[in-house]
Amino acid sequence: MTHTAHWDHPEPLAVASAPVPQYGSGSLADLLPTLAAGMGVPGTTPAIEELAPADRACVFLIDGLGWEQLRAHPDEAPYMASLLATSRGGTGRPLTAGYPATTATSLASVGTGLPPGAHGLPGYTVRNPATGELMNQLRWQPYSDPRAWQPHPTVFQLADAAGVHAAQVSSPAFQNTPLTKVALSGGTFHGRLTGEERVDFAAEQLAAADRALVYTYYAELDGAGHRYGVASDTWRGQLMYVDRLVQRLAEQLPPRTALYVTADHGMVDIPFDEQHRIDFDEDWELQAGVTLLGGEGRARHVYALPGAESDVLTCWREVLGEQFWVASRDEAIAAGWFGPHIDERVYARIGDVVAAARDDVLIIASEREPKESAMVGNHGSMTPAEQLVPLLEVRS
Q1: Alpha helices, DSSP H only, in the chain?
Q2: Which DSSP category does 24 fall into?
Q3: What is the reported pLDDT for 379?
Q4: pLDDT of 229-278, one tens digit each?
Q5: In the predicted model, is pLDDT for residue 5 greater than 70?
Q6: What's residue 9's pLDDT?
Q7: Does this model's pTM top 0.90?
Q8: Rg (CA), the chain
Q9: Are 190 and 237 in contact (CB under 8 A)?
């Protein structure tokens, strides 16, 4: 091994330098509890102090619509761009998604009102301590009992029990998925195929009661970003379409309604070369002592062989520490990456080593994860492009 001079080898990124999400005051997990508390729902607390109460509230979650991407495309999204100053109760500021900034984690944070360390979906794939297998928390494979995996009630369940009309309007394909059960159940689920049908029916649901909490969702912007990138014409076309959906919903709001448009994460395009895409499946140094590779390219959970945890941490920090925040499980927890509290059942789901990208770089796994490794647009980490999401507001 060739040893370089100290001044040629910068120190690894300090764990404490990672921009931790604003749990408790301005994260996705704080949104529904704030809205429900404004309707007098027991067991909920208003955490986002900038939001005024409303009798009826609708959350329209657009998968993949990051704050930075929206601000960079005012021509494609003129209506939403006109609402940027309304974000977060008129402060013009975004929310933070939570770590990792990925769909399963964020949807669980939205629905339960809890940070990842409490609801227990702390990544795209994580180890199931009961089986030792990697579990994909978006697709719920291999299957695990949803209620055991995430036992906390959702805000929709609390609202429904308090007499608030609670409803979710989304694709019929999501109605019976385990992720929907653990994150978004409570009240009634209404499957509607097209975006227009969803926003129209969401408006009907808002008008169905004096107090209503309604959620609707659009996924295709995220899909376009993954396949073609946020710099693509396809992605921009999707943004134009979803901008019209938001305006369509806003123009149908019944009286005393607050509409909030938000997202689960942003996205960054990563170039296809060895400098930007480090292949775990071809890197013997990164593989040494590792039994499972979890998470995703920009937010990895690394599970070590028993006794090898310290060596794996040292190696990953030496190899990647100038481009990734690399932490041990306990360091990441102490730094608050997953929230202020970690439930006991969640602790071992988190990697022995956690690696969060700062630079435009991925840790792919071309053999284990061929589809994910081929994606143009990616997300998961704590950079502003991934973490910051809008909270656009329209009131009637």
Answers
A1: 31-38, 67-71, 78-82, 87-90, 103-112, 116-119, 146-149, 155-161, 178-183, 195-206, 220-228, 233-250, 284-287, 309-320, 329-334, 344-347, 370-373, 384-387
A2: T
A3: 98
A4: 999 999 999 999 999 999 999 999 999 999 999 999 999 999 999 999 99
A5: no
A6: 59
A7: yes
A8: 21
A9: no
CA–CA separation, 176 and 207 (whole Å) = 25
Q: Are 383 and 358 in contact (CB under 8 A)?
A: yes
Amino acid identity for residue 301 in this structure? H
Helix 220-228 with 233-250: angle, nearest 10 deg: 170
| CA–CA distance, 50 with 71 (Å, rounded to integer) | 21
- Rounded Cα distance between 144 and 149, Å, is 7
Q: Is 101:386 a contact under the CB 8 Å cutoff? A: yes
Q: How far apart are CA 203 and CA 194, in angstroms?
A: 15
Tens digits of per-residue pLDDT, 42-79?
999 999 999 999 999 999 999 999 999 999 999 999 99
Residue 93 carries which side chain, given as an amino acid letter?
R
Q: How far apart are CA 331 and CA 352, in angstroms?
A: 10
Which one-letter amino acid corresponds to residue 365?
Answer: A
Kindly tell me if the per-residue pLDDT of 3 is higher than 70.
Answer: no
Taking Cα atoms as reference points, which of 394, 390, 396, 355 lies closest to residue 93? 390
Contacts with 38 (C-beta within 8 Å, 6 or more apart), sequence order: 46, 51, 52, 53, 54, 57
Distance (Å) of CA 127 to CA 135, 324, 330, 346, 366? 6, 21, 16, 10, 20
Give dist(CA 104, CA 121) in Å, integer.
7
